[in-house]
Design a protein that fits this description.
The protein is mainly beta. Helix content is 9%, strand content 27%. The protein has 4 helices and 17 strands. The radius of gyration is 23 Å and the shape is globular.
């Protein structure tokens, strides 16, 4: 038994935990007070006696945005920064202007689902599902059409006509954030190592450095996993009923194996271009995880192997190194795109925000 435990100590394990929604208001409103130095998640509340109509007001979405930039688009936000009364309400708004053939380049919103309606013109829009499918779901929208971009997924808009286009989008967070993929990958500060990116994209390093010079362009609350309303809701893969998550297995048929997985003691095969292997233990392997908002993976790395730059649209990750040494990092959202990085040794722990 002791030897088996020691063997487990040589595995690199990460734990993914679902993130909660924007903080909910516990009173009529909690208008953001930008003068407060109190550190809170979101913003401290302004004295309600000093709140006025202008705290819930913004003027500007009627004004055309300046699209004279490489992307040919301009986002005009109405978030908690512009409307302090949005604080704790989990919603915001943007106007997006597009020049002819302009794009809102591929990006993600780490804290919000987006619902977009075309006010003028025509747009090709789409989003990409997460690994391993990476399926592009795309459609051409006309004036009055509406489209939803799920939280955390990479998405884009493209004006496919020779006239201007305008869209209005609502986002399910007071501060949805934006991570433009090209900026995060090619424009972090400091740079992500060219060796890491060249291996991730599987191109020659010199070619990659040229691509990096060309690739940078001109940007509802995030809900947690559905909570369990009973002791458990073991996923039933045999049902065809479409739900958010999984339908529950008949609790009378639940057994210990529904909460069990064997395999994280086995070394992953790192004979691939990235030199790494992720072995998951999520609801697909452990149906008893359904509704519990947590999962586990083992990651094996060959010498000089990488786990290529990626995001988890529905989870924060906490990683501990059980053998060897790892350089890790993440890139903050626009406009800073700041690289926060550290070298970890055995026993070190690091958190990657959702």
């Amino acid at each position: 038994m002791a030897s088996q435990f020691l063997l487990l100590a040589f595995l690199a394990i990460t734990c993914s935990v679902a993130i909660a929604s924007d903080p909910s208001s516990l009173q009529d409103f909690c208008v953001a007070d930008p003068t407060s130095s109190v550190p809170v998640n979101g913003h401290a509340c302004k004295d309600p006696k000093l709140v006025g109509a202008n705290d819930f007001f913004f003027s500007g979405l009627h004004l055309e945005g300046n699209t004279s930039n490489p992307a040919g688009s301009k986002v005009t936000p109405a978030t908690v920064t512009q409307i302090p009364g949005l604080n704790t309400f989990g919603i915001s708004l943007v106007r997006i202007d597009y020049a002819p053939m302009g794009i809102n380049p591929p990006h993600t919103h780490p804290r919000a689902t987006e619902i977009l309606t075309v006010v003028e013109g025509s747009l090709e829009v789409g989003f990409v599902t997460s690994n391993p499918e990476n399926r592009l779901i795309s459609k051409v929208l006309q004036k009055g059409d509406v489209f939803v971009f799920p939280v955390g997924l990479a998405h884009f808009q493209h004006n496919v006509w020779n006239s201007n286009a305008v869209a209005i989008a609502a986002l399910s967070s007071q501060n949805p954030g934006a991570i433009t993929l090209a900026n995060a990958v090619f424009g972090s500060k400091p740079d992500i190592s060219a060796d890491v990116l060249a291996k991730a994209f599987q191109v020659d390093k010199n070619i990659f450095l040229l691509l990096a010079c060309l690739a940078i362009t001109a940007s509802i609350a995030l809900a947690s996993d559905p909570s369990s309303l009973q002791d458990f809701c073991v996923a039933d893969p045999s049902t065809s009923v479409p739900v958010n998550g999984h339908v529950c297995k008949d609790p009378k048929l639940v057994v210990a194996d529904d909460f069990f997985f064997s395999g994280l003691h086995l070394a992953g095969n790192t004979s691939n271009p990235a030199g790494s292997r992720v072995t998951p233990a999520n609801v697909a392997q452990i149906p008893g995880l359904n509704t519990f908002g947590i999962s586990l993976v083992r990651i094996d790395y060959a010498p000089w192997g990488i786990n290529a730059p990626h995001t988890h649209p529905r989870a924060t990750e906490i990683l501990t190194v059980l053998e060897g040494s790892l350089q890790v990092g993440f890139v903050t959202s626009n406009p800073e795109n700041r690289l926060i990085t550290k070298v970890l040794q055995k026993g070190d722990v690091f958190v990657f925000p959702v």
